[in-house]
Write a structure and sequence with these properties.
about 475 residues; binds guanosine-5'-triphosphate; Rossmann fold; Four Helix Bundle (Hemerythrin (Met), subunit A); binds magnesium ion; about 15% strand; alpha/beta; flat
Length: about 475
């Protein structure tokens, strides 16, 4: 049997859930495509849906021989819709069943299930938004913190598109002047043009563009962290107060806390936001030698998590004082920048004036009272920035990159420009240099989607979620 692969790029009516099915008051189903309003009208009563004006809402029933669900339909007429096509949003009743029943009716009527990101893909193809804004839609949907949301919104408003277009414009100027000189045939080269031999016209502009692009490329380091987050593992001896700290950072009683050493066996994780950075916080079993079969597994898992961690918060039990095991751990990991050492239970026992391990200055914290948390937050963000070589939480740039795809393309443009400038310094002829500038321009064009291929687009949009 022939395999009919559905491709992006047709105009058939598509439908998808825009909300996650489950327990909710409402479910939203989104439909778009040529003839989608007429198609939906076949399974909708009253029959005036077909004549509905754009940007209006119609109340009625999705029906076959029987009524399926009472809905509100928002009608959008091309080109004034998200996709640029005729579209409707069907607001059904929530819960796991009602929306699904409506979807089944729509599919029987002829709607095809949308592919991942297909609505946004169509919006791009119809010139509604460029690729940086398409990607910002996905960033916004998956933002984990308020800072992540703000950054995505800035790109959704076009900050990156504008920056890329401005940079590209400068580069196109350089390309144009280089191409003009290329067009001279040999005997046309006058004294004037000989003067510029060995130097790219617009070399200074190319150098300025390169430095702007490098700043842009560097911005990804921090943006990635805001999007993907950082794994922070809390470790230490049993009873040090790890679960107490976990709960306090979470502001929720999630992990079991008791005075019995060895309470936590299975590790527990949860997301928190610290200074806008999404943190995957992990509470672990206390590290100690033990003969308890369950605890042994717990400790093994803790050790494995320590290897995966980007930041490790190591707790010393202040009440109990520094043990030999603590000293061993600190000495072993002292130079590893991932570690933050904490003297916990400072409400019961102050940090000794002279900390016994030289070169270590633990942060004094009480997981119980919250004392020392400001210093702890600062230590966590500094440790994250140290690791990413990011100088400060914010680079003074007008736009920042939002995806690895964009970063790779900016880096391609940088590499092409670096080579351009190097060859120009060596006095290489323009016909060797010009294609490199064109490569850089094309890479920038690919970021916004001005330059694109079906493969590139399919690869990009297939990472989106269905319904977007
Ligand atoms: N006074 C005081 N007590 C604390 C503090 N942090 C933890 N405790 C107490 O110390 C005991 C152990 O706390 P947990 O948070 O369960 O310690 P843990 O490190 O998770 O222990 P395990 O799961 O056994 O490895 C509990 O009785 C807590 O109430 C603190 O900052 N001050
Ligand atoms: Mg615990």
């Amino acid at each position: 049997m022939a395999h009919n692969k559905v491709n992006y790029g047709d105009e058939t009516p598509i439908a998808a859930f825009a909300t996650t099915p489950g327990n909710s008051a409402l479910t939203l189903i989104r439909c778009s495509g040529k003839g989608s309003i007429e198609l939906a009208a076949l399974v909708f009563s009253p029959s005036d849906l077909k004549k509905a004006l754009g940007n209006t809402i119609i109340h009625g029933w999705i029906k076959t021989d029987e009524k399926i669900d009472e809905v509100l339909i928002s009608v959008f007429r091309a080109p004034k819709s998200y996709t640029g096509e005729d579209s409707i949003d069907i607001c059904c009743h929530g819960g796991p069943v009602a929306g699904k029943a409506v979807m089944d009716v729509l599919k029987n009527a002829g709607f095809r299930e949308a592919l991942a990101g297909e609505f946004t893909f169509r919006a791009f193809m119809n010139g509604k938004i460029d690729l940086t804004r398409c990607e910002a839609v996905m960033e916004l949907v998956s933002a984990k913190t308020e800072t992540g949301r703000c950054r995505a919104v800035s790109r959704l408003c076009g900050s990156l598109e504008k920056e890329i277009n401005e940079i590209k414009q400068l580069l196109v100027q350089v390309l144009a002047s280089a191409e003009i000189y290329l067009d001279y045939s040999e005997d046309e080269i006058s004294a004037d043009t000989e003067e510029i031999e060995g130097k790219l016209p617009g070399q200074d502009i190319a150098a300025a563009v390169l430095s702007k692009l490098k700043m842009l490329s560097a911005s990804w380091q921090l943006e990635r962290i805001y999007q993907e987050g950082v794994t922070v593992v809390i470790a230490g001896r049993p009873n040090a107060g790890k679960s107490s700290l976990f709960n306090s950072l979470l502001k929720e009683d999630r992990s079991i806390v008791t005075e019995i050493a060895g309470t936590t066996r299975d590790w527990i994780e949860a997301w928190v936001s610290i200074e806008g950075i999404p943190i995957r916080l992990v509470d672990t079993a206390g590290l100690r030698e033990t003969s308890d079969a369950v605890e042994i597994i717990g400790v093994e898992r803790s050790l494995k998590l320590l290897q995966e961690a980007e930041i490790i918060i190591y707790l010393i039990d202040g009440k109990n004082g520094l043990t030999n095991e603590d000293t061993d751990f600190i000495n072993k990991n002292n130079t590893d920048v991932r570690h933050i050492f904490i003297w916990n239970k400072c409400d019961l026992a102050p940090l000794p004036q002279q900390f016994p391990v030289i070169g270590i200055n633990p942060i004094c914290v009480s997981a119980k009272t919250g004392a020392g948390f400001t210093a702890l937050y600062l230590a966590i963000t500094s440790a994250i920035l140290d690791q990413t070589n990011t100088v400060s939480l914010d680079l003074s740039v007008s736009a920042r990159l939002g995806t690895l795809r964009q970063k790779n393309l900016v880096d391609n443009a940088c590499a092409a420009l670096e080579e351009t400038l190097a060859l120009s310094e060596q006095g290489e002829p323009l016909d060797i240099i010009t294609p490199l500038i064109r490569d850089a321009v094309n890479s920038l064009g690919e970021i916004t989607g001005e330059v694109s291929t079906a493969d590139i687009l399919e690869e990009m949009f297939s990472r989106f979620c269905v319904g977007k």
